[in-house]
Amino acid sequence: MQGRLIYLMGPSGSGKDSLLQAARAPLEAHGCRFARRVITRSAESVGEDALGVTPDEFERLQGEGAFALSWRANGLAYGIPREIDDWLSAGQDVLINGSRGHLEVARQRYPDLLAILLQVDEAVLRQRLLARGRETPEQIEQRLARSRSFAVVGGASAATVAQEHICVLDNSGPLQQTVNCLLHLLDETRRCA
Ligand SMILES: Nc1ncnc2c1ncn2[C@@H]1O[C@H](COP(=O)(O)OP(=O)(O)O)[C@@H](O)[C@H]1O
Ligand SMILES: O=P(O)(O)OC[C@H]1O[C@H](OP(=O)(O)OP(=O)(O)O)[C@H](O)[C@@H]1O
Questions:
Q1: In testing the pocket of ligand 1, which one of 18, 45, 95 has its CB within 8 Å of the most ligand atoms?
Q2: Minimum-distance ligand to the CA of 128?
Q3: Which of 17, 91, 98, 123 has the most Cβ atoms closer than 10 angstroms to its Cβ?
């Protein structure tokens, strides 16, 4: 049986990377795999354990078909390595850090993916992004503006979310609470699948 692609998305600063790190051990214990993203962001930059490449290297990798999914946002290019297809074919679940803007395309390739939207109030988001200190204040405002522009999934009204088959996770509280909710959600949706 094919594994399930779990597509975690949400605005910059909503806590995707923190959640992936905190949930990694319990999920790996259940055989779930985690994809390491390839990003045209310098390797020393704060944040996730991504492979930093130059724009030229990214182009070359993309040309070679190295990515199962790839997109551009925030002035960067992001790639999800093709090996996730081997994991899925082997029946393993795979959790990826996705993009709201790329969800529709991702769904065309993986119709059964489980889309999870991580949400936090904008004021908290701004605070967390400033505290993280990876982007300049201008870049942070651009990311917040990008978030507001997501009428479909960024605003996340209950009706829209239901229609788009998106599960919403709130990360305004303690991270461990969000980890517990994610584990519960994965368990529940597995039983319904
Ligand atoms: N539940 C939480 N409570 C407090 N701070 C959090 C929580 N989740 C994440 N953070 C902090 O918010 C900042 C942004 O989180 P991060 O995981 O980098 O978000 P993303 O990957 O979505 O951009 C980080 O500094 C992180 O430590
Ligand atoms: O279409 P969107 O949902 O806006 O997503 C676009 C990209 O922005 C985020 O990455 P970013 O470089 O901001 O890293 P972060 O999420 O770790 O902040 C997200 O992980 C996506 O790769």
A1: 18
A2: 1
A3: 98
On the question of pLDDT at 153 being above 50, the answer is no
Check pocket membership of 74 for ligand 2, CB cut-off 6 A. yes
Q: Which ipTM value was assigned to this complex?
A: 0.95
The 5-9 sheet, strands edge to edge: 33-34, 94-97, 5-9, 114-119, 166-170
Please report the atom of ligand 2 found closest to the CA of residue 78: 22
DSSP 30-63: TT-EEPPPEESS-TTSSSS--EE--HHHHHHHHH
Nearest CA to ligand 1 atom 1: 175
Tell me the whole-structure pTM to 2 decimals.
0.91
What structural domains and CATH numbers belong to the chain? 5-35+92-192 (3.40.50.300)
